[in-house]
Amino acid sequence: MDIFIVVLESVLVLLGIGLIGFWITRRGIIPENVLSFLSRLAIDIALPCMVFSSVLTTFTPDTFPDWWQLPLWWLAFTGISFVFSLIMMFLSNKETRSEFVLNLLFQNGLFFPLIIISGVFGTGSIYVPQLYIFIMIHPVLFFSTYHLFFRNREAEKKTQWNRIFNPILIATVVAVIIQLFNGSDYLPDFVKSILEILGGMALPLIMIILGGSLYLDFKQRGKIYYREIIKFVTMKNIIYPLAFLGLLLIIKPNYNIALLLMLQSAVPPITGTPIVTERAGGNKAISNQFVFSSFVFSVVSIPLVFRLFDYYFPMP
């Protein structure tokens, strides 16, 4: 099947589940006060189980001895993204510059790449655990630095260690250590089944929560920043991935590295930016508008970008 169609269907799956969450929250099927509970269930339990079980079943150090390089590639990607974001932020209005650069820098590095990899290569693909290892430090950076973007405002100063050393990071590290010492052979099958079943609800639950949260936020959206939205979507969904594709053509890494880097550059912002923006005293409304508009435009931009990527980096 054409790579454009496969990626398009993968993105539509995510957005479709998000729309269901939007609709059921609008109808009152999910009360507003239940969303926070579901969010904790998804982030602290279901998602770590999904990461843990996936690493155990699809990652073997013998077949990919260079796995330890993946976090280093993430570090390089983040450094380049930081430079890009600093350059591009001067295109935004000064009053919303903090929100602009925050959403440019922190991408939705797990959910969108996961569903695209699963759609293109299958759920048992070796690229799935490689994605987890690649991205495992990303939440640490996000929760430990977001307040720095709002230096001149009332920001949350207290470090929340439970967000930095989060369950996803712990699950990834523990699973990799177990695989390094062939420890999965000693885990009972029923334990693996429990983790797999719990992990299976992570992605749909998170997208339903996202859709519901967007509905609640848009009830109080206030001013719509049309010009800033257009500039942001142009930078995030078009300029970013094209710039990284150019870099990939220069450095020519292995296919798995090129795939992960391309995925990270093409996806929308991380869904938590509106929450931390409000927490740090920023403009939550425009962060919501950046996330929502980038998500919607990604239906077109991600498939087109990957059609171009597949031309220069054909699947092995």
Any overview of this molecule?
The structure is a single chain. This protein is mainly α. The chain has a single domain, classed as Na+/H+ antiporter like fold, CATH 1.20.1530.20. The chain contains 15 helices and no strands. It has helices spanning 3-26, 32-58, 70-88, 97-105, 111-121, 127-135, 138-145, 161-164, 167-180, 189-200, 202-218, 226-251, 255-266, 273-279, 284-312.
List the topology elements.
Elements: H1 3-26, H2 32-58, H3 70-88, H4 97-105, H5 111-121, H6 127-135, H7 138-145, H8 161-164, H9 167-180, H10 189-200, H11 202-218, H12 226-251, H13 255-266, H14 273-279, H15 284-312
As a percent range, the share of strand residues is: under 5%
Number of domains: 1
* Count of helix runs: 15
CATH class: Mainly Alpha
Q: Which value, in Å, is the CA radius of gyration?
A: 19 Å
**Which blocks of ≥5 consecutive residues have pLDDT under 50?**
none
Total beta strand runs = 0
Global morphology: globular
- Give a quick account of the main beta sheet: strands, pairing sense, barrel closure: none
CATH architecture: Up-down Bundle
- Structural class category: mainly alpha
Q: Tell me the span between the first and last alpha carbons.
A: 15 Å
Helix content: over 70%
| CATH topology type | Na+/H+ antiporter like fold
Overall pLDDT, averaged?
A: 86
Sketch the topology as an H/E string, one letter per element.
HHHHHHHHHHHHHHH
